[in-house]
Queue: 2 jobs
Job 1
Amino acid sequence: MLLLPDFRVRQRDFLLEISRALTSQLNLDEVLKLILQAAASMLGGSVGLIALRQDDEDSFHALASIGVDPELIPLFDPLLEYLARNTDDDFKTDELNVKIRRLARRLDIHMRQAIALPMVMRGSTVGVILVFRAYAGTSSPNDRLLLQSFADQAAIAVHNAQLYQSVNQEQQRLAAILDHSADGVMILDEGQRILRFNKALGRMLGWPPAEAIGQSHGVVIHWEHVDQGQSLEDALAAGWPRPWRDDEPPDSLYVEGDVLRPDGSRISLGITYAPLLDEQGALNNVIASVRDITHFRQAEEMKSTFISVVSHELKTPVALIKGYAGTLRRKDARWDSETIQRSLEVIEDEADRLGELIENLLAASKLQADGMRLTNIGDVNLATIAAHSVERFQTQTPIHKLVLDFPPDFPSVPGDEMRLRQVIDNLLGNAIKYSPKGGEVRISGAFDDRSVTLSVTDHGVGLAPDEQERIFERFYRVDGALSRKTQGTGLGLYMARAVIEAHGGQISVESQPGVGSTFRFTLPRE
Ligand code: ADP
C-alpha cells in the first residue's frame, strides 16, 4: 500500500529522533504538528491531517492539518466518519482510495493515495494519521511495521499531552476556585512556608498576597489568643498529623481565636488545617481554610447577653410580684389598708415594668424583622417634648439637676411624636442611670437651615472608645459593675438609632470614661 521514499536507510534514525521529540513535548497542538510533519516527510506526502476520537464519540475530529486550507477541513468529515467506523478492518485502502479521489476532486488538488495510520492506545483506536500523496506506491511488511511503530509512539505522545492538558486544566480550575473563594485559603509547604495565599485571606489579614507568599505561617498568623484548639505550630510539635491508619485519613486541625493584623487591629478567625501526606506518611503540604468569625462571635455574645438580660430583668419583677402577693395572701396575718395599698402599688409597678420589657422585646424583634415603620408623621417640637420629659424625670431624682437649653425660636420638624418622645426619654433616662453620683444633665437644642440637633450631656461614668461603637447594637450593655446593678435591656439605644435613622437623621455619642457623655441626634427639617 505504500512505499517509503529513498531515505529508507535513515528510517530508524528518523523514527528515533521523532519519538524523542514527541516524548519531550507536552503541548497537544505542538505534538500533533510534530507527528503530522514527521508522517508526511516519511511518507512523501504534502497534505495530511490528524484526527482524534473525542469523548468516546463515534467519529474522529480533525485537530491538525498541513497542506489544506483549514476552511476546507469539514470536507474530510465523511472520510473520517468512515475511518472511525472501520478501525477494526485495518483501513481498507481500496475503498479509501475511492473516497480519496472524490475528495480530491472537491478539494481541487492532486491526490492519488491516502495512507491512514491508526493510533492505538491500550487496544482502542484513539485517532488516525492521514497522509495524502500525489503518487501511489507499495510498501514492504518491514515498512508497515516501521510505520505502525511510529503511529504507536504518536499515540503515546498524544495521550501524554492530553493527560498533561487535563491536569493543567484541573490546576487552573483549582486556582480559580482558590482565588475567588470568599473564604481565605492558603497552602503551606512541609516547612510551613506559604506557597499560595488567596485574595480573600489577604483582605482578612491585611497582608497583600504577594507579600505573604514565601513568609513563614507563624509570621502571618499571629495569634493574640487561641480560644479553641491549638496553633498549627503547637499541634505539629505535639505530633499532628497522625499518619493514615486503617484507611482512616489523618485528622484535620481546627483553631479558633483572635489574630493580630500588621496594623495592630485584631480579627476573630476559625482556621481548619488539612494535611496532605505523601505515600510514606510524611507531611507534604498543609491546606488552610480561614473564616472570619467576628460576626458569628458577636451574635453568640449577643445571644448570651440576651439570655442573661432577659432572665435577670424578668426574674426581678416576677420575684417581687410573687413575694408581695404571697405576703398579702397569708391567712394568719391582718394587714392595715396602708400596707395593702403600698404592696399593691409595688405589684402594679413591677407588672408595668414587665409589660414594658416585653413590649421592648417585641418592638426590637419586629424592628429586626421588618425595619422601623413610622406611623404618625406630624409637626414635632423637640423643645416641648424635652420640657415634658425633664419635668417628669426631675421628680424621680433629687441628686441630678436637669437643665433645659433650647433657643426660643427652636423650629418644629416633621416626625413621629410618640417615637421621638421615646428616644428623648431613653437618652435622659440613661444620662441619669449612668451618672450615679448625680450632677447636671443638660438637654440642649440647636438648629440651622437644614436640620435640628438635640443633645443630652451628663457627667457620669462615660464610655471607652470601643464601647461607644457597640452601645447602639441590640442587647449590648457595657459589662461593668454599674450596668449589672442598673436595670436595662440594652435595647434603648438600638431602638433610638432605628427611630432616628427612619427619620433620615443620625445619632452619635461623644464620651470620655469617668468624665461624662454627650448623646446627640440630628433630624432633617424637611
Ligand atoms: P440599657 O440602658 O437598657 O442597658 P441602652 O441601649 O439604653 O440599654 O444602653 C446601652 C448601654 O450603653 C448601657 O447598658 C450603658 O452601658 C451604655 N450607656 C448608655 N447611655 C449611657 C450614658 N449616658 N453614659 C454611660 N453609658 C451609657
Note: The mean pLDDT is 87.
Job 2
Amino acid sequence: MKPIYVLNGPNLNRLGKREPAIYGTTTLAEVEDLCRASSGDTPIQFHQTNSEEKLIDLVHEAIDEGAGIIINPAAFTFTSLALLDALKMFEGPVIEFHISNIHKREPIYHRSYVSMRADVVMAGLGAKGYATAVRAMLDLVGGR
Ligand code: CA2
C-alpha cells in the first residue's frame, strides 16, 4: 500500500508553542499522532522542514512513492512557484491544508500558488483538522 505524504513547511515545528490564539496549543508531534491514528492501515509519511529545497525534494519523493499529498506549505504557499511546479508533477490527489483560515487574515495571505494545483483546500479547522484531511484523503485514494 502506498503511503499518504503529510508535508509541513517552515515554522510549523513551533506549533503549539507560539501564537496559540491563531494556531492553538496542539503540537506538531500530536498532529503526527492524530494523522497516524486516522489513517487505518494506510501508511503515513509525516515530515516538517524549514527549507524550500527539502520540501520540494519531499514532493519529488511523493511523486515516486506516494498515493496522495496533504501539504501545509506555510509561508511557501504565497511565494513558491518552484513548489507549485513540483506539485504539478504529482499525479495523485493533493490537499492544501491550513490550520487557520488564511482568508480571514491580511491580504498577503489570500493569494495561494499551491491552490492552483490542489484538488482540495482546507483552512480554519485548527490543528486537529489534519485528522479530517487524512480521512478525506483516504476517500480520494480509495481503491488505489
Ligand atoms: O494556518 C496555517 O496552517 C498556515 O499555513 C501557517 C503558516 C502561515 O504562514 C500561513 O499563512 C497559514 C505558518 C505560520 C507561522 O508558523 C507558526 C507555527 C506555529 C506557531 C506559530 C507560528
Note: The longest helix spans residues 52-65.
